[in-house]
Amino acid sequence: MKEEITQLKKQISEAKLRCDEASKEVKRIEKDMAEFSKNKDSKLAELQKDLEKLKKALTKNSTAIKPLQQEVRDAMLESEQCGSDLAAAQEQLQDAEVTLKAQQDEINSLATEQTRVKVCYANMPIFY
Amino acid sequence: MLGGTSKYLINGHRAQQQTVQNLFQSVQLNINNPNFLIMQGRITKVLNMKPVEILAMIEEAAGTRMFEDRRDKALKTMAKKEMKVQEITELLRDEIDPKLEKLRGEKRAFLDFQQTQSDLERLTRLVVAHDWSKYREKSQQSADDLDAKTQRVKSLEDSAIRLKNEIQLLQEDVKKVKAARDKELKKGGKFQALEEEVKAHSHEIVRLATVLDLKKASLTEETDKRKKIEKSVRDFQKQLSDKQSLHQKSQQKYDTAHAELTKQTEEVERKEELLQTLLTGVASKEGQESGYQGQLQDAKARASTSATEQEQAKLKITHLEKRIKEEEPRAKKAEKENSTLLKGLEGLRTQAQKLETDLKKLGFEAGREESMYQEESSLQGKIRELKEQADTLRRKVANIDFSYSDPSPRFDRSKVKGLVAQLFTLDKDHTRAGTALEICAGGRLYNVVVDRAETGTQLLQNGKLKKRVTIIPLDKIAAFRASAEKIGAAQKLAPGKVDLALSLIGYDDEVNAAMEYVFGSTLICEDSETAKRVTFDPAVRMKSVTLEGDVYDPSGTLSGGSAPHSSGVLVTLQKLNQITKEMRVQEEALNSLQATMTKEKKKLDSAKALKQELDLKTHEIKLTEDQIRSNSSSSVRFISVLYCIIC
Description:
Distance between the termini of chain B: 163 Å
Order of helices and strands of chain B: EEHHHHHHHHEEHEHEHEEHEHEEEHHH
Largest sheet of chain A: none
Mean pLDDT of chain B: 83
Number of strands of chain A: 0
Number of helices of chain A: 2
Strand content of chain B: 5-15%
Helix content of chain B: over 70%
Shape of chain B: flat
Strand content of chain A: under 5%
Number of strands of chain B: 12
Distance between the termini of chain A: 102 Å
Radius of gyration of chain A: 40 Å
Structural class of chain A: mainly alpha
Mean pLDDT of chain A: 86
Oligomer: heterodimer
Structural class of chain B: mainly alpha
């Protein structure tokens, strides 16, 4: 219930915001409609001018977005390449660690063997 | 007036004219005054006198005039006396003062002379006393030296006899061993088999050492390789994170730009649609109202939907409020019912708090016991490891094992210091001098050091020694250390290449005499050239040993060649000593830890009991809380929370 009430309060505030925006738009449209019924030609010319301006801006932005798109693509490719390099290096590291462990084990067993032989050698009787 | 001379008498006695005048003056009569007696007929003249003359006459009459003469006389006398004083002052200044000053100076010089003379006498006496005491000490020292030298001669003679006996015994041993060897050789079987075995072992050792070296080299290479790969992995990781962050930034930038573009496209489309509709009166998309009317309808619909949503939410809130009001009385009732439980809960909490306080007072730290046990097991592990290492090393130097039984009950074992080889340390910097020191010490390396000759006798007689030993009693041994002049001369001949063997080792002060006896008379040289130069120099003439083990004796003998059988024993011994020391430290740490654990066991037990009780109480609290929560009274708190949210 606690969560429900909080949620409801949030919903009310959001709905209020949307309602306010819609009312503002209604007023704006009504105003535009009134202007249009008063003077159709000038309103149409104004709309036409706005449209052209917007189209120009659109063309400019669509041109500007292309290098950005390329940049994103390049960055993605580079990071993918780097990721694959990292994976390869990690694999190498794992291999090296396995080899090292095996070698260390071998050395330990050899050292044990050496100690054993040395002890045998040292315990041999001495004749002058 | 008699015979042309005047004669004056006062009361019939003869007197001077001045005396007579004074007599008159004393009764205010001035006989020299011209007006002393005014004759008849002269009164008119007096009356006609001038004022000055009248003043003079009045002064005469008043008697003040007669003092005028006296004053003049006195002034004259004073002037004369003043002259005389001036003369005397000048005399004083010009002659007497300089003379006086000169005499004073002479007096001072005389006093200084007297002082110096007395000092000289005192110092002479002091010097004589000092000389006397110094010569006395010197004579005492000489007597002591003589005694010591006599004693040393005696001990050297004893030692020579003992060594001769020893040599004889050793020769006998050698003979016995040779006979045994010959016997074995004649048999041909066992000795040959042993020899082959020795050879096989030797080959195996060499083979294993080579393989081990190769493997170690390979391991080093692999380690380097792994380090390089690790470095490259780190680099790649860094690069990846950099590139990912760059990608994210670019993506974010692109997304923003793309959203802006989409928004603009939509705006353009909308405007185009509007313009189209307004121009033609027909919507471009069939069935859609895209003019002002359409937009208006859309906006109104959105506004009404939002308003409806608001209303619905408000209704729901009202419904919830109603529910709260209905639940409230019931909740109060339930709270009363649960008050007993709540009281119980409070009581439990108080008890738990009390237990916690008691635990804190006891100084209980969670996990301390475990950490102590862990430390104990780690210490035991370390000691075990060190023991294993020590055993391995001991096997290598089996012939230095010196054991004995207590010669008498309650025998103080600290009197027996141990073998010489165990009593000194070899610094890491001087490890390479190990062989040289071994050669230098020779058989003395295995001599046993004891505090007194009596202890040595006891050991020899009742110590049940397993082998023949030579004993160095610290109180009797004739220690010898090469003189500083000789060492200085040697170091001058080959600077930085010669050292006294004694200076290369570290040892306790109490065994100083034994160490001087063993290492005090030999020099350790860097190479044979230096040894040759130093040994035969007339200023040195001392036995020298090179780092390779070649011995140069001033008598002319040289010995060297292959390494001795016991080569490296000193280094191994040093390692063994080090490990033994470390083991002792670890054992001490373990003992102290175990003592602490025993001491704190009671505390820990009581703390454990308290902890158990506390855990029980915590569990009870949890159960009670669950019970309360499950009861309807829990809704009371919940409703109050709801009130807070709504209001």
